[in-house]
Every structure is written in structure tokens, then in C-alpha cells.
From TrEMBL:
GO terms for molecular function: oxidoreductase activity, acting on paired donors, with oxidation of a pair of donors resulting in the reduction of molecular oxygen to two molecules of water. The chain crosses the membrane at residues 35-55, 93-113, 187-207, 213-232. This is Fatty acid desaturase. GO terms for biological process: lipid biosynthetic process. Keywords: Membrane, Transmembrane, Transmembrane helix.
Length: 334
């Protein structure tokens, strides 16, 4: 059904005037730290894979897959930071390293992801926000859900029965989906960027296929990526904007205070402080928690912010109380 893009009421936006000096301080990008962090993710993933191949036992492969999947989630968050130009302070270096060592291994492109994601920031929870439109047409993202429906959603996610929906909606970030028709998703994916991807793919996958352990490497790379994309990343994406009132900017996005298990499986690198990121997208990941602590000293923020304890808390929020459990409803946005 057609819907007119909603007008924001007066006073919708949170006042940033008292925070600007701190934001300038928190918006400094630590190039050395991010470079070491990126090297660490690859070192852990390669090390876990090498141990699994050397031992060649199913339990070790499963453990390695868990470790590699958690590093894949870290790379996904770093791709998000690179999209905002916060991986490295030099934009060319940011985009080049972000593509070759972060986005391409996940099947995406920094440039294609950026073209969509910046619209999401500018038009959050409106029809000009593609993420919001995806929520509206995807039954998996209609909330609240009954406990039985929520369990069924998680079962289908773990088993991959709804993976096609995640793949369909993320194709706009994928170089191979934009190679022959680079303008199909309202972004001109230039010839130079397409050639860069082809050269990378020939080298990266050629090196894997040349290896005598090609099938083990591909399984260790692709299976955890499949699981993390369709289960843990789905939970993280659902948590960010589904089931929020959106009566004001502070309750149009959810911040989750993560447990240690949440940080390992779902939300590494402070990505769960999503409201803070939407309010101040220039602040890189190491400073988001400090920003959250500062904002919690503001009574207006404390009174209005949608903050949830843990991702299990989000799942509970997205299920109605037993007395009101019923049919699934569309994603709740005012």
C-alpha cells in the first residue's frame, strides 16, 4: 500500500548543541589501531583454519568455524565503519583497504554499501530509507511476534530456510550483482571499481583453488559466513530499528547494552551502541561507549532514549505479553 513519507513533528530531533566540543574530540580516527585490529582479525581466522586443517577432526572444524564466524562479524562491522570513512583517515586508503581486506571477502563493496547506507542515515524509518522498506515487505521483520513465531524465525534462520531473503535484499551491495548493469541500484559503480573487484577475485579465489586444501578453506570461509549473516547479523539488524516508537529521534533507534556473549557472536566493536551512532555518525567505534556514558548524564537523553539490556532483551521486547499475543504485525514505526 502506498504511504506518504511521514513528516517529522517539531522537536523530533535531539539537540546536539551541548555535545559538539566532545564530538570533535571523539571523532578522531586511530589509523594504527584500526590497522592492527584488521590484521588481528585475519590472523585469528587464518590461524583457526590452519589448526583445523592440520588436526582434521570434525569437532575442531566446528570450533574453528565458530571462531572464524566471529571474525567475519568483526569484518562486517569494520565494513560499516569504512563506509562512513572511519576505518582510515585518508579516504583513498580507507576505501582501498576496506574493499580488498574487508568488503570483498564478504561479497560486498564499500562503495555500493555506502550508496545505500547514507540514505538510511538521512531518512531513517521513512519510505526513502531502503532498510525501512525492506522491513515492511519482509514478513520475518514484522513485529511483534508470538513466542512460537519467534522460535520459528530463529529455526529458519539457523537452517537457512530464509537465507534467500537476506541474499535478495543485500544484492545491492554485491559487486557481481552490479557488474553488467552498474546503474541498476541508483549508483554508478564505475568501470575502475569493477576491474578492481575482478582482479581481486581472480587472485583471492585463484589462490584458494590452487591450494591442496581448497575445499576445507572454502568451507571454513563460506559456511560460517552463511551462518553469521543469516542468524547473528539478522538479530543485530532486527534490533536496530524494529519495534521502536519513533515518536522522537531518541526512540527511533535502539541501543543495546551487550553481554560478553553478545559482543562475541552478534555485536563486536561497540556496534550495539546504535542510537549513539545515528546521533553522531562521525564517532568511530572505539569511542561509542564513551559517548554513551556521556549522553547518560543528559536527563533528556535518559528520559527519551530506547536502551535495551542485551539482545535477549530485544527478543523479549519483540514478543508481546501472553495476553496480547496474536497475529504478526508490521514493523512498528510511528
Amino acid at each position: 500500500m502506498e504511504e506518504i513519507a511521514k513528516e517529522r513533528p517539531p522537536g523530533y530531533r535531539y539537540s546536539r548543541r551541548g555535545t559538539l566540543a566532545l564530538i570533535r574530540e571523539l571523532s578522531v580516527i586511530d589509523n594504527r589501531r584500526n590497522a592492527l585490529l584488521l590484521i588481528l582479525q585475519w590472523a585469528i581466522a587464518i590461524g583457526a583454519g590452519a589448526v583445523a586443517i592440520q588436526v582434521d577432526r570434525v569437532p575442531v572444524y566446528l570450533l574453528a568455524g565458530l571462531v572464524i564466524g566471529s571474525r567475519i562479524q568483526c569484518l562486517a562491522v569494520m565494513m560499516h565503519d569504512a563506509c562512513h570513512g572511519m576505518l582510515f583517515s585518508n579516504r583513498r586508503v580507507n576505501d582501498l583497504i576496506g574493499d580488498i581486506f574487508v568488503a570483498y571477502p564478504l561479497g560486498f563493496s564499500i562503495h555500493l554499501y555506502r550508496a545505500n547506507h547514507l540514505f538510511h542515515h538521512r531518512y531513517t524509518n521513512t519510505l526513502r530509507d531502503r532498510d525501512y522498506r525492506v522491513q515492511r515487505r519482509d514478513p520475518d521483520q514484522h513485529f511483534p511476534k508470538s513466542p512460537a513465531a519467534m522460535v520459528w524465525l530463529l529455526v529458519r534462520s539457523v537452517t537457512g530456510l530464509n537465507f534467500y531473503r537476506m541474499a535478495r535484499d543485500s544484492r545491492i551491495w554485491a559487486p557481481f550483482a552490479n557488474f553488467h548493469n552498474p546503474g541498476r541500484f541508483d549508483y554508478d559503480y564505475s568501470l575502475g571499481l569493477r576491474i578492481r573487484y575482478v582482479v581481486w577475485a581472480i587472485f583471492f579465489y585463484g589462490l584458494i583453488l590452487w591450494s591442496p586444501w581448497r575445499w576445507q578453506i572454502l568451507a571454513l570461509l563460506l559456511i560460517p559466513q552463511f551462518i553469521w549473516a543469516n542468524v547473528f547479523n539478522r538479530i543485530r539488524a532486527i534490533a536496530e530499528h524494529n519495534g521502536v516508537a519513533d515518536e522522537q529521534e531518541l526512540n527511533g533507534t535502539r541501543t543495546i547494552i551487550p553481554t560478553w556473549l553478545d559482543r562475541f557472536l552478534i555485536a563486536p566493536l561497540n556496534v550495539s551502541y546504535h542510537l549513539e551512532h545515528h546521533l553522531f555518525p562521525s564517532v568511530p567505534w572505539p569511542n561509542l561507549r564513551r559517548l554513551h556514558v556521556h549522553l547518560m548524564t543528559d536527563p533528556a537523553y535518559v528520559a527519551g532514549a530506547h536502551i535495551t539490556q542485551g539482545y535477549w532483551g530485544v527478543i523479549r521486547e519483540l514478543m508481546p505479553p501472553p495476553a496480547s499475543a496474536g497475529a504478526d504485525l508490521p514493523a512498528t514505526h510511528s
